[in-house]
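During the reporting period the student researcher (J.K.) took over the structure-prediction task from the postdoctoral fellow and processed the backlog of single-chain submissions. One of the processed entries is reproduced below for the supervisory committee.
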Amino acid sequence: MMMYWYGHGMSGWAWFWMTAGNLLFWAALVTAVVLLFRAVLRPGTHVGGHPGWSAPSVPGSPGAEQILAERYARGEIDEEEYRRRLDILRGSPSGPAKS
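J.K. obtained the following structure tokens:
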């Protein structure tokens, strides 16, 4: 008979509980890592608090200009607001500078 842990034999149930415990531990760890990455890399958020490190956009998702055009088409913003925001998105602010 094989003896483990200072002369005490290990029954079949002990092996079962050790295996189940290990599986639960690794499942919880993987779940925590996945949830952490999903929270950090959520579209529109900045990674590490730095504005230049945004999460990559999802291919096929609408861009900022398209969303702005849709808001204008629905009447949520007027033409002046649309043009002002479009110029800002394109990197060429127009009009008088506000102080």
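The committee noted the following: The chain has a mean pLDDT of 76.
J.K. will present the remaining backlog at the next meeting.
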